[in-house]
Every structure is written in structure tokens, then in C-alpha cells.
Amino acid sequence: MITLNFEEVRRITGPNLLSQKPGALVDAYIEGVSHEVVWQCWQNNMSDIFEWLDWQQESLYYRHFIGGISLSISAPIDALYTACKAVELGWLLSEAQLLSHPLSDKKHRFNELKAHLADEVNPELMALIAMANDKGVSYLVDDDYFSLGTGGTCQVWPVTELPLSKNIQWSSYQKVPAAFITGTNGKSTSVRLASTIARCAGLRAGVTSTDFIRVGETILDTGDYSGPSGARILLRHPETEIAFLEVARGGLLRRGLPVSDNQAALITNIAADHLGQYGINTVPELAEAKFIVDKGLTDSGVLVLNADDNELVRLSATTEHTICWFSMDKHNSLIQTSLSNGAAVVFFHEQHIHFVDGEYTFSVAVNDIAMTFNGTAAYNVRNAMGVIGLCRALKLDQDAILKGLKAFGSDPYDNPGRGNRYQYHGAEVIVDFAHNQHSMSAVIEMARKIPAKRRLVMFSHAGDRSNQEMIELTDEVVKFAADEYIIAELESYLRGRELGEIPTLVKKHLSDIDISEDQIAISNSPLAGAKYALTKIRAGDVVLLFALDERDEIHQLLV
User: Rounded to whole angstroms, how far apart are CA atoms 156 and 274?
Assistant: First the structure.
């Protein structure tokens, strides 16, 4: 029996997992029929649609994943809504054929599609884009606006009120230095550190992240701005002089990259997180999604990669860009090969981070970098190395890099929610946003190195994780060897779960692995859990608070 379940269709506005071009994509789950049969059927139907729309220059793409398939087309940037309707019609036609359910109004649907295209196309916009590409001028386009240049030279027009090309002073538009930052963990820390270094270089840095969008010291808005809309806002802002764009998995897979002419990109690491979404079910597939940033670089762009990450090493064979490797091991073979070739590298050796680019070299002691906690926070040593490589790729000088590394603190002001340490009534309190196995393990490894009379930990799990994932994350927390475990409910992250369901599951698992009843407490929120922990605190304790929510309120308790 054949089962075909249409999941969703979405616009792709830039370089993406399947291609370098904008277009549209449909995800579907299939059973009882091979990926190849579905792909061939859809190809045939899309060929008819392309002919009807006179899209002879466009291409078809697909990828299969466990239980499903992604089908995609390239399309003109001024016709992405039509493209969505086209891929969906291609799917409906394929579904009808594979299930032997004829689609009776095919011609009518084709005519509707062509009429929709006629309403959507914008020849003036496409002519300006073609000219911008020909002249090497950076541009941004969305549903409502078209712009040329970035930062202080940027000029923006409504797509319905575009200028005549003869009136445009093409030479007046410049592209500010810009970089992508992605990976499973360390993205937000890296964009914040990079912006501090840029400030030390005398530049007003723009930052997009999962927490806010900021230019200089001014936060334009709070929220998740790790997708294309945040990048456009930042790059169009007249005060942006250099841009660090955090790009998360969701934005990459939903829309693709916002631009394709950045000078550098950093991929911090790859680890299991949010698997099972958008057809990304394995760590290698997740790595390929993160590696999309490679498609957003200029020909001379630099890709900064973690040489200790096997997935990034594997995918490095697919890039044509210059790579700057970083590693915790000076003797890593990729570091040694790069040194022999005179290529730029960053590595950790004898409690120092070293940058070497041919004959040019400098180093900094980790004891001088506050966020590494004298080198005990290995994850922040890695973050610092990646940012050093990125900033050198953007031509920021050594003095600014060293000054920024020393100025950037692991506190709620420089890096909110990431390894923030407080002294509270003689105890050490650490607040961190870590929420996956890789990041929680890194924080716990650091916290265990701090001498403690007793250890307390508060943690939570979001409801979109499976029971098994929650158990595995709980096992990671248990490695802290705490004297008390505080399980906090995350009401705003239930995501389909019932109130009390997750704490009950976690408490049972702790009991099953011989954590005694009097070592387990349940709180109805992270803030309540933090308050409870502070009532139990004694001088000499180490308290680890994994705060996925109410972080600002918890900070106010501790200052």
C-alpha cells in the first residue's frame, strides 16, 4: 500500500541545502514506494509545468531522508509564491498518478498558475538584480523592498517604486565586511565576542542572533533574529560597519541564506540537536545543513572550521574556498599540513592560543581570556579560536583581537546566559542556557573542575524532545554528581506535553538510577527552581542552573 503525506511547501530565498539558487521546496513523507519512483514522477510533472510557465532555465533538485523526500525547484526571485504553487501542483499531480486518482481539473490549475505568475512578476526588479550582479554590487530583496549596498551606503526602495537604472550611481554602493556564524553550540558567544573585537578595532559592529539584533551598543529588537529577515535589517542599517550574522539550522532550512557574498564564515561544531525536523534525522545530515554557509561566500571567502570535528573534516572536501582550521591539538594533522603549506591556522598549545599565517604569528594566554576560566572552560577556548580565525579572515588586526579577547567577559552583560558566574553567600553559582547533550556536557566538565563542598543542579527539558532524549540529557546532568537535583517545569516549552509530565518522567529516571528521593526536588519554573536552590545554598557550594527560561529574572536574584 502506498502512503503519501504532504508535509509543507516553503519559499527558499537564497542558497540552500539543495542548490545555490532561490526557489521553492516541498517536504513529503512516503511509504510503500521508492524515492526514485516519486522523484521521477514529480520530475515529469514539473517538466510540463516549467514548459507552461516558460521556465526553461530553471532546475529540479531532490534529497531523500528516512521515510520521506524533499523536492525543490529553482525559480526567479520575483516569482517565489508562484514557485510554491508550482511545486505543490507538481506534487498533487504526482500523488494522483501514484495513487491512481486522476486530477480532473489539471488544465484549469495550469491556467490559474500562469495567471498567478503574471500578477507576481516584476521585470524592473529582475533587470536591477541582473545589473547589480554584472557590476558586483551587493543587493538585498524581500517581499516589499529592494536595496543596493549595505551599511552606510545602503539605499532602499519599495519593490513597487524602483528607480530607473540610468539614475543609479552604482559606484556609490559598498559592501560592509560580513560573516556567517553557525554550528550546534557556541554561535551566540562567537558573534558577541567577534563584535567586541570589532569594537576594539574602532568599528560599529552589527550582530544578529537568537536573542536579539544589535548595532553597536543599541539593541534594535529582542527575539530570534537568526534568519534572513534579521540579516536584512542589520545589513540595511546605516550604522552597521561590520556584520556578524548568526545563522541557525531552522532559518537555513526554512529559507536558505540571506546573502551570497560574505567574506567569511565560521562553523563552530556539529552535534546532535533538534534531529527529526525538516528531514534532518542524523548528525551527518545536520552537518550538511550547517555547511550551507559555504555557499554564501565570495570566491575569495574564507571558511573557518573546527579541525577536531569529524563531520566538518568530512565536508571540507566539498568546498573550493580557503579553509582556516582551528584545533585544541597543535599536532592535529590538518593543523600540521596547513602550517607546512603556509595557510592560516589557530591552535591551543601550552595554555596559549596561537594564530599562525605563514610567517605572521601571535599568541594569547588563556589565563588572559576571562571567558575560558583559566582554560577550564574548554568549549570557550574553542569558541575563542574560531573567532580569532574569523576576525583575521575579515582583516581585523592583531591588537584589536587581543584587546577584544581580554575585554570580553563571561558575564550577563557581555554574554548573557552563557557560562555566567556569580558569587552568592560564599558559593559559586553558574547560569547557562545549555540545552543539548554537547553543550551541557561542556558546561558540566567545566563546573566539575571547581572545588565544592556540595553540588546542586537545576535543569529542564523542552517538550519537543523524545522521552529517550530527555533520559539521555538527564544522564548527562547526573555526571555533575550533584547532592541535589532540581527539576524545573518549562511551561512555555511544553510543545504538546502535559503540565507535570516531563518532571515526572525525569524524577522516575533519577530514582531508577538510584538517586534518592531526598535528593530530588521539582519546581514549577526555572525561576522558582533558582529561588529554591538559593535557599539551600551554603558557603563553598557550587550551584549549576541550566536556565532555558526566565534568565533575566534569575540574574536579578544573584546580583
Answer: 36
Q: What is the DSSP string of 276-340?
A: TBTTB-SHHHHHHHHGGGGGGEEEEEEEEEETT-HHHHHHGGG--SEEEEEES-TT-HHHHHHHH
Q: What is the DSSP annotation of 462-498?
A: -TTS-HHHHHHHHHHHHTT--SEEEEEP-GGG-TTPP
Handedness of CA 62, 251, 321, 20 (dihedral sign): positive
What global pTM score does this model have? 0.83
pLDDT along the chain (559 residues), means of 10: 89 94 94 93 95 94 92 96 96 92 86 95 96 95 96 96 92 96 90 95 94 91 89 96 92 90 96 74 92 96 97 97 97 97 96 95 94 86 97 97 87 62 88 78 86 91 86 91 91 85 91 90 90 90 86 82
Cell of 256: 536558505
CB contact at 8 A, 304 and 265: yes
The pLDDT value recorded for residue 462 is: 85
Secondary structure letter of residue 344 according to DSSP: -
Our measurement of the distance from residue 53's CA atom to the centroid of its chain's CA atoms, rounded to an integer in Å, reads 35
Residue 447 sits at φ, ψ, to 5 deg, of -65, -30
Q: How far apart are CA 47 and CA 50, in angstroms?
A: 5
Phi, psi of 506, rounded to the nearest 5 degrees: -65, -45
Q: Please state, in angstroms and as integers, the Cα–Cα distance from residue 24 to each residue in 50, 71, 286, following that order.
A: 13, 9, 20
Which of these, 530, 540, 331, 351, lies nearest to 455 by C-alpha position?
540
Q: How many helices (H) and strands (E) does the chain have?
A: 17, 24
- How far, in Å, CA of 404 to CA of 368, rounded? 11
Grid cell in block for residue 540: 563553598
Comparing CA positions, the residue from 181, 185, 124, 175 lying closest to residue 153 is 175
Contacts of 85 (CB under 8 A, 6+ apart): 113, 116
Which helix or strand (DSSP H or E) is residue 361 part of? strand 360-365
Using CB atoms within 10 Å of the CB of residue 142, give its burial: 0 to 12 exposed, 13 to 18 middle, 19+ buried: middle
φ, ψ at 256 (rounded to 5°): 85, -165
Pick the closest to residue 547 from 538, 539, 536, 556 (CA basis): 556
Say if CB 500 and CB 434 are below 8 A apart: no
Report the distance separating Cα 90 and Cα 46, nearest Å.
Answer: 5
Q: CB–CB of 12/72 below 8 Å? A: yes
